[in-house]
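Prompt: May I have another protein with tokenized structure?
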Amino acid sequence: MTTQTVRGRRRATGPASEYPVAEAVMTVRPRDAHRDARRRRSLFSQVTEFAAASGVGQKAGIALAATGLVLTVTVPSTGPMTSTADTGNPAAAAVAAQPEVSAAASAKIDFNRTTVATKGDPDGKLKQLLSAQSAGTITRAASTGSLGAPLEQMVTASPFGFRVSPITGGAGEFHRGQDYAAQCGTSVFAAASGTVTFSGWHPYGGGNRVVIDHGNGLETTYNHLSSSSVQVGQKVSRGDVVALSGTTGASTGCHLHFEVMVNGEVVDPLGWL
């Protein structure tokens, strides 16, 4: 029985009926024998095992490195390949057919810099050319650029070949080298490494003269010098100062007369510079 309250709610006047009691249902899930072991393993171990199982070891390694973890990868070492007499295995037969490579005990390996011919090593290029053949058989295409400039500034005053003599005024004089304008006292450089074979006065118009032998028939000469700083037998390197320009001998003014000789005969220096 209920009564109406002032606020409109009904209040039970009799004993309340008992609410039904829900029965607790206990479902027993099968126990995972590896669950506790997984919980005890570190995060690092779990991630690496997952990476190995899924084939993404490289990506996992990158991810671990990004998080600050260190991943150690063991790369199996390799040894020499050996073969056995397995005629049924095509791969083994192919390996067995490879010839054995060996070298004699007296074999020599030469790492000499002169065997290297590059733009950064012009002396090496020249020595390689001269060691392979006589200077007289070298083509102009191969020789061009193999000699260095004998002056810091190369200003042609008179070219190689026939010309009008600046001394006599006669036509048909054969000019044996290239004349380059240079004030007296300008440094003259060795065009390449070699041995000085002459340093002194040239009786046939060259004035003070220096001759450098570069080997295999190639020589360079420097003429009308005001002075020289080298002696016969001296070894010089490309770019060494060997003299100072001048106007000695059959000369009408300060300049350098530069010659290139191949097997004793003068050739156009432009074929080597």
In short: The radius of gyration is 47 Å. The chain has six helices and 14 strands.
